[in-house]
Amino acid sequence: MYQSIIKKYNSHMKKLDSKANGVSGTLHTFYVFADIDKNGTDECILRYVDAKKCNTADIYSFGETTAIYSIVNGKVKAVIKMPQEYNIYVHTQYCAIYKKSNYIDMGFSHGYEDRCLVKYKNGKLAPKGILYTSSVDENKKVHTLINNKKVNNKFYKKRLKALIGNEMGYTMKRLR
Questions:
Q1: 125 closest CA partner among 63, 68, 51, 49
Q2: Which residue of 4, 16, 27, 74 has the lowest C-beta tally within 10 Å?
Q3: What's the pLDDT tens digit per position in 111-134?
């Protein structure tokens, strides 16, 4: 059921890339089928990136293009739609998916430790995520927050690890 959406995504992203950057050919469509929420239905995860290998847990600082589709009531539905614009310098559609989690890391800043984990279940993202923020001040002291509430670093790491496990993602295949 996902074959037509993969082809549509690939064509769409190549057109956007060519229009935005004037050059096409260095970026490739990657895909994987994975049951993110472990309900028996594989989702189709798509990315358009400049990489030789791609993994759903990979973090790209710019040019993120993750799209996710699921089958709901016998129809392909967008969980995260394909982008309508594309520029390798834009930071708008960051997303990481981990094997041992039914949360999707939607990211919200350039900080490696800043995350917004949104629960995913039966083809739907929860309306609100859990914010994990970590920063270091000028004295090299670490400040950690969960949903804007101060927590100690050990607690922060334990809670984050419980949601994302070992941060292993699904290996994606390159569309030829």
A1: 68
A2: 74
A3: 556 788 999 999 999 999 999 998
